[in-house]
Amino acid sequence: MNQPSNVRKIALLPGDGIGPEVTAQAKKMLEAIASHYQHHFEFSEALIGAAAIDATGTALPQETIDICLDSDAILFGAVGHPKYDKDPNAKVRPEQGILGIRKALQLFANIRPVTTYASLHHLSPLKTDRLEGVDFVIIRELTGGIYFGEKQTSTDGNQSSDLCIYTREEIERITHVAFQYASQRKNKLTLVDKANVLETSRLWRKVVQEIAAQYPKVEVDYMFVDNAAMQIMMNPAQFDVMLTENMFGDILSDEASVLTGSLGMLPSASVGKATALFEPIHGSYPQAAGKDIANPIGAIVSAAMLLDHLELKEEAAVVREAVAWTLSNHFVSKDIDSVNFYFTSTIGDLIADYVTGKIPGSVKQENIELRKSTII
Ligand code: IPM
Ligand code: MG
Q: If phi over 0 gives left and psi between -120 and 50 gives alpha, with beta otherwise, what is residue 150?
């Protein structure tokens, strides 16, 4: 009885900006889960992004790849630093860290669930009635397309190109992932592409149409990306599983996050051949770094997806319950409420306490109030 279950190795890649702060909250929650459910999580921290460039000269040291390969799951924060954004000539960039790890581990499927919470509906720029029933998942191809095609600049520096390239095999493997998701959800799949213009999009349509025959229960529709960008705002409840290529998925998932009230809310899982990686979809938000004001929910729900991946379903469910509890009791960060907000670490503490069963029973409101913004 109460024997610790197998050791699960988790690689922690906090990265830059708010990455370390939000990852710390997710780790705190995972440690609380481990102690409460008698699991043994072993964390190994590794460098990535600007932090890795500063320490080693490269955004993705080999040691980081090795630690990831040797782990059961990876928890990633964010990468990016303004000094590189402002310098188009920079040879090394923090983003090479995350792009490199996705490629090295062949994490070709990026799962981005768009979950809305009734208690945050008022923060969305959309009218509340349009948010009713919104619950979809964007399945973004993550290791191909224009992100990874050949890049060139002419010797005189006056012409550049980025090749958008997809193979049938790359499309097939992610299409199966998307159909499997749709089969477990509302049996609806929307392929988002630009098949009226792009050859790669026409290959996507062809492959998806062929594979659709293997999933007769799933209703498939096809939407051009410009229309999809509009439909996410006009009628987001129509979507169930949205399948799309790398760059369209990057853009549409930031757009979709607006429905939830904040970019800080959205989690993601990247799965493929080697160790799966879990990360909030937001960036490094350097303006907020070190201030304890970032929204930890995207990172914490990403860690819930990590628990699901480790087959710890009950634990993942309790984390989601904890998140819903903090939101509905208005324990929210500054991006959600710029006046009455709680600190990143306080929200993390509350979630850790919730998953260990300490709350809602014994919340000491006065103690929490002390960790609240003093602006009011
Ligand atoms: C994301 C990010 C990354 C991407 C950046 C940091 C390279 O925007 O995960 O959505 O473009 O994929
Ligand atoms: Mg993005």
A: beta
